[in-house]
Amino acid sequence: MPTSAPADLLRPLPVPMRPWSHVALDFVTGLPPSSGNTAVLTIVDRFSKAAHFIALPQLPSALETARLLTQHVFRLHGIPRDIVSDRGPQFTSRVWREFCAELGDQVSLSSGFHPQTNGQTERANEVLEAMLRCVISSNQSTWSEQLAWVEYAYNSSTSAATGVSPFEASLGYQPPLLSISEGELAVPSVQLHMWRCWRA
């Protein structure tokens, strides 16, 4: 006779029909201090696989997470219909549930038994960590300064799931990649800035 409750049926996540209607959130923590930041909030569009990486001084509260979502997703892409996250305290709090209910958003929480529901942000975090290791190999305290270029590179890369870059899937075109001029520029500060961007 079985001693455990019968397993429930898996409920697949809704399939997005347009960019930024279904997003997934997760955090990267334990990073070396960089301009006062030690963590990153990763926000992934489940349709295009595009991501935003936001440097944080520490893990935010539920209300601070709501504000970050407003600043970095709502103003650029509109209000999503579904938000996937893990069961961290930010996402299980009454504040977060009330915030999402007010927006009319569906909240999808991954569980320890089915962590694959938030697999897109887990994968984005793996890629982010690998890219940051390359960028900061010589100076670990500069990762937050390079985060915008890491995000640009991530969103410019072809996704195995879609066959196109996240930029192309969400915007309909591929922005140009940054190239560095071999010759001397007339303004040295511009050349130094471009060289730093290129190194990222």
Automatic annotation (TrEMBL):
<dbReference type="Pfam" id="PF00665">
    <property type="entry name" value="rve"/>
</dbReference>
<dbReference type="GO" id="GO:0003676">
    <property type="term" value="F:nucleic acid binding"/>
</dbReference>
<dbReference type="InterPro" id="IPR012337">
    <property type="entry name" value="RNaseH-like_sf"/>
</dbReference>
<feature type="domain" description="Integrase catalytic">
    <location>
        <begin position="15"/>
        <end position="174"/>
    </location>
</feature>
<dbReference type="InterPro" id="IPR050951">
    <property type="entry name" value="Retrovirus_Pol_polyprotein"/>
</dbReference>
<protein>
    <recommendedName>
        <fullName>Integrase catalytic domain-containing protein</fullName>
    </recommendedName>
</protein>
<dbReference type="GO" id="GO:0015074">
    <property type="term" value="P:DNA integration"/>
</dbReference>
<dbReference type="InterPro" id="IPR001584">
    <property type="entry name" value="Integrase_cat-core"/>
</dbReference>
<dbReference type="InterPro" id="IPR036397">
    <property type="entry name" value="RNaseH_sf"/>
</dbReference>
